[in-house]
Design the sequence.
């Protein structure tokens, strides 16, 4: 059976962390399995966790009046779900619904924040990694906004 | 005094004179895309290759360049999938079985399928970029042993805009991954830009060839993602579309930097064209 640190190192976000850092991060995580249709979190609730998806698919969505739940993006294996644990006021800005049965590592964000405050090098390293992940998502969101397949773009 | 006309050759006639083709079948693919299967009324154009296009003429309305989307190893009809977006394409999509349209071509170069033999083949399509790649998929299905992994990554605007969805599910021995830019709760698939599919796709970037078709901006971002994954620039091929008019490099409407897309393209190696794709003036 593989240890949690061996699992999380396969994610691009944690790839390249040294063993000591990996164990510190893994110490805040646990394996979970969530069935399709269930929610990982709901918009507006306290955000003290985040997830590394190992298998399955998660939809990040928001409720739009007269349209219902609209999926903004989906996250699959290797991807991180949830950044609101990083920044105050630590409340979810979107909801996360499981589309295909998920196996994931759930991290206690408060635990990890505490370790980052105690060990600034770890904090800086993790923050840089999450910033890179956020930049990728922002870039994707920009392209989505461009509506490249729409009539104006063709 | 009789004027000596130059001898009319098949090539000369085919280049600028549309040949009449009859619509034998028409299929609606989604809310604004139709596939027309055409057969020659008399003379036929030269055989068309994967990636090549013809100029389709709706008589009295105008001409548009459309890539072939059919199975080129199946003899017979010329197959084009057309999005009804302008006057000419709307007129073509309104054609009924039995109607006659004009066809010039085939024009342009073909996908370098031989480059992918013995290697992984990655096909990335955005929007109506899937039809120009479909002949390559058919070829890969019929010559599956010629390639290692074959991967199709397809991105659309919404689930309603996706093409050939039933067919995609029937493509065996090929990894197909689909995403849309926006979807409601009824969609159980992926949401996000097509480039998001690239990091998790199963192929060896150091021994793969990628063919990419879609809007120019989508191809730019896709090429960047493929480069990030480790593909060399010379392993990435794109198909360009600008305002093709004559189809034979005479009118210059489709010029991009030093190249005329109808004559030298539409298929280019990424590193040949990339420097010009990011110049706003071009």
Sequence:
């Amino acid at each position: 059976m593989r240890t949690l640190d061996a699992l999380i190192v396969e994610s691009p976000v944690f790839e390249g962390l040294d063993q000591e850092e990996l164990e510190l991060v893994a110490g805040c995580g646990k394996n979970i399995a969530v069935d399709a249709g269930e929610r990982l979190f709901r918009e507006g609730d306290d955000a003290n966790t985040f997830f590394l998806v190992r298998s399955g698919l998660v939809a990040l969505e928001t409720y739009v009046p007269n349209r219902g739940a609209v999926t903004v993006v989906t996250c699959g294996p290797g991807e991180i779900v949830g950044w609101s644990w990083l920044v105050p006021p630590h409340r979810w800005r979107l909801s996360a619904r499981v589309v295909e049965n998920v196996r994931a590592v759930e991290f206690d964000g408060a635990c990890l924040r505490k370790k980052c405050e105690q060990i600034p090098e770890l904090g800086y390293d993790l923050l840089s990694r999450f910033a890179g992940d956020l930049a990728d998502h922002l870039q994707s969101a920009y392209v989505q906004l461009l509506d490249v397949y729409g009539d104006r773009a063709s | 005094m009789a004027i000596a006309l130059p001898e009319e050759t098949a090539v000369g006639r085919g280049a600028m004179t549309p040949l009449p083709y009859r619509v034998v079948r028409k299929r609606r693919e989604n809310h604004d895309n139709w596939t027309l299967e055409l057969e020659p009324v008399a003379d036929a154009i030269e055989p068309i290759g994967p990636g090549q296009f013809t100029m389709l003429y709706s008589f009295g309305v105008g001409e548009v360049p459309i890539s072939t989307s059919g199975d080129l190893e199946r003899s017979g009809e010329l197959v084009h999938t057309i999005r009804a977006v302008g006057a000419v394409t709307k007129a073509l999509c309104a054609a009924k079985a039995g109607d006659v349209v004009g066809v010039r071509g085939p024009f342009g170069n073909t996908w370098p399928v031989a480059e992918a033999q013995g290697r992984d083949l990655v096909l990335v399509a955005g929007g109506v970029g899937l039809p120009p790649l479909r002949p390559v998929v058919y070829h890969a299905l019929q010559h599956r042993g010629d390639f290692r992994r074959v991967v199709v990554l397809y991105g659309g605007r919404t689930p309603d805009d996706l093409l050939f969805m039933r067919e995609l599910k029937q493509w065996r021995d090929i990894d197909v991954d689909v995403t849309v830019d926006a979807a409601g709760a009824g969609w159980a698939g992926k949401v996000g830009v097509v480039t998001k599919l690239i990091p998790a796709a199963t192929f060896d970037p150091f021994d793969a060839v990628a063919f990419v078709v879609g809007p120019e901006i989508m191809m730019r971002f896709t090429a960047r993602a493929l480069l990030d994954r480790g593909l060399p620039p010379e392993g990435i091929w794109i198909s360009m579309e600008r305002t093709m008019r004559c189809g034979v490099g005479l009118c210059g409407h489709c010029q991009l930097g030093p190249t005329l897309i109808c004559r030298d393209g539409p298929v280019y190696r990424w590193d040949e064209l990339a420097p010009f794709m990011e110049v706003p003036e071009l």
User: Anything to note?
Assistant: Chain A touches chain B at residues 12, 57, 59, 61, 67-74, 76-78, 99-100, 140, 143-144, 146-151, 153-154 (CB under 8 Å).
